[in-house]
Amino acid sequence: IEDLRRADLIVVISKDEEIQLRRRGLQNILWSPPLAEPSDFPLTSQVGITGSANRFNQEGIRWLSRAAIPQDIPVKIYGALAQFAQWPTVDKVGKYNDAHKPYRNCGVFLLPTALGMGVQIKTVEALAAGRAIVARTGAMRGLPSGDGAWIEVKTPEAMWEQAALFSRHADLREEQGGKARAYYQKHLDSRKILSDLRTAYSSLVQN
After folding, report:
1. Does residue 117 carry a pLDDT above 90?
2. Cα–Cα distance between 185 and 38 in angstroms, integer?
3. In degrees to the nearest 10, what's the CA dihedral of 201, 204, 206, 207?
4. What does DSSP assign to residue 169?
């Protein structure tokens, strides 16, 4: 911590880290979360999950597998995580080259990964795309308070129940997607984050 006290600037990606450091008396801190460009795709009834094959994401899929998928909702899983899904009815898309593909195809996004550290880039991407987000407690770590920008759940049953509501009701998707987009614009706008970084680095050079 003493080395940090001597630093001219401390850049952190997690809001939680910023809060902890400020409590320890540090002031020269800039919160700079992962960048995601905003997008504006239709909010389809498709339900999406995306992730790599790391152990934290695998735990999230196992957690979600403890409850049955509602039979009438379409679910797609993107990335290497798809190979670990045990549900016979889901579309295991797997690898994709277009970073926007999951968010273009799916109006509802599930975030079951709660373990690990720092901010998950997929949480920022889902907010930037204005998706209707259902997140397991802990999945949105490192971000400012949601204020309704996502629905937080504690059980896999609750996650599927909320996913089904969003999938079946376009008006609920639109309302929730609007809240996600407003949150992104307030806290995660990539242009503002880059501008703040440039200002901070320019100040260091000048001093």
Report:
1. no
2. 9
3. 170
4. -
